Amino acid sequence: MHSIPGRRVIMALFLVFLLLPIYWLVNMSFKTNAEIVSTMTLWPHAPTLQHYKRIFTDESWYSGYINSLEYVVLNTIISISVALPAAYAFSRYRFLGDKHLFFWLLSNRMAPAAVYALPFFNLYSAIGLFDTPWAVALAHCIFNVPLAVWILEGFVSGVPREIDETAFLDGYSFPRFFIKILVPLIASGIGVAAFFCFMFSWVELLLARTLTSVQTKPIAAIMTRTVSAAGMDWGLLAAAGVLTIIPGALVIWFVRNYIASGFALGRV
Amino acid sequence: MDKTVNQKAWFLVAPVFLVVAFSAVLPLMTVVNYSMQDTFGNNQFFWNGVGWFKELLDPSTDLGGRFLASLGRNLFFSLVILAIEVPLGIVVALSMPRQGWTVAACLVILALPLLIPWNVVGTIWQIFGRPDIGLLGYVLNAIGIDYNYVSNDIDAWVTVIVMDVWHWTSLVALLCYAGLKSIPEAYYQAAQIDGASRWAVFNAIQLPKMNRVLLIAVLLRFMDSFMIYTEPFVVTGGGPGNSTTFVSIELVKIALGQFDLGKAAALSLVYNLIILIVCWIFYTVMTNAGAERKVQAESEPAVDFKASAGLKPVPALKPKEGVA
User: Fold this and answer.
1) ipTM (interface predicted TM)
2) Hey, which end of chain A has fewer CB within 10 Å, N or C?
3) Overall average pLDDT of the B247-260 stretch
């Protein structure tokens, strides 16, 4: 690939621009509140782990991370397992209403979460799922399932049809072909789709906050508690923020080689 | 490659249909139901027909004024961030290192802002921009610029826009990078032999190859910025005054703040309709581009083969590694 002149400088500047606010958050999480409020220091002069210690020892704090991860993982599993057969169907067959169905799915990916907040609240209260991880996991399906279908359809289309035909000639039944042959072939695509489901479920707050109250509050909602009568607990807020970045960073590290094609939704 | 007609495929699609219908159709029916009614509390509802819709589209009423103002702000916001993020994303994609460990490092750092929960993105910028404890606010004030996003409209706008650029330019850059990577090296060699200038290479080779991904980027960014809620809500709370109140913020205020179900539902439907129309344009343009690509591919099959092979580079590289 041919690049432009001065590319190293541009890239370096952009990366600094991306990292500077994150650095500031990390920096603050290691400072005492007294240091944050009183002086402007570029690095913590009296580094402290007190904020992290508090999060890891206080159950009302660390349970938030567990709650969030719980519905994110549930949602990823549901999304991928229902999207896989559908992606195969969209990629290989024409059937009544296929194009309309695909468009309808896609339009749900674009629907603003704010529109659904209140009706979801009513719906999940009525069926007794309110304040469980299932409610959030199912609610997040509205944008993750269409996305998973879309990405996986691209990857399934990359598998030559001859492979299906050969497998069926060899006497494979459909479920066996699906699990033994197709799934391993598009494993990287499944990884990319799972990454996207994880990402969009992890970063969403509005629905997650609306559908939970006490038992399963996500970490994002708990973070708003740092405002108290004594003012903002900035250090604690920063530490909680840093800890929400870590799962995402870990996930990126594992899929870094697939990021580029994944972001093009398998369609470049 | 023609697809075979097979109605049994519906069995494969049924799970998706059920899951999405459960989360989309049922709530949407509730919204339609509310939008036609008025309530004075106590769960007593009255038929209101299209009253709310009339009010919503009439700028002289309170509801209509608020809706149209937030819609205008939101459109302006979307246009500004597109005008910044798309060119910047292209430049960043062109600046990606060619090989080595730096590629992976750059990709990971680029993707990092995308995986930060949206309210934390808001928190990061809230802290970063504060004149008393934030680096940005402190430095700007120290060099003599009076910057305070809590009390000044323009500062609040600039903060929200810079935050969105910080948050989402990477998406555009990564999409463009994926597009650039699919260009076969032979194209560049041909250009070099012809003595093409840097600009000619960009204009004639790279830009056309990025068309499709740029389309995805522009439309994804438009949709997502059009329904932005969490980040500006955390940073500015929609203020100062109403200056950064976007449509979603207005909607949540009406629905969950005032519990004005009828008005909120009517707003939701109109909002959804706008998104649906844009989405339809997106889908049509995408499928047309796909059809065009197919025609193009048939006329030059070798190129298309290479482009699609770029998706799964591992098997192509393996024999080479074995030799080495």
Assistant:
1) 0.83
2) N
3) 80
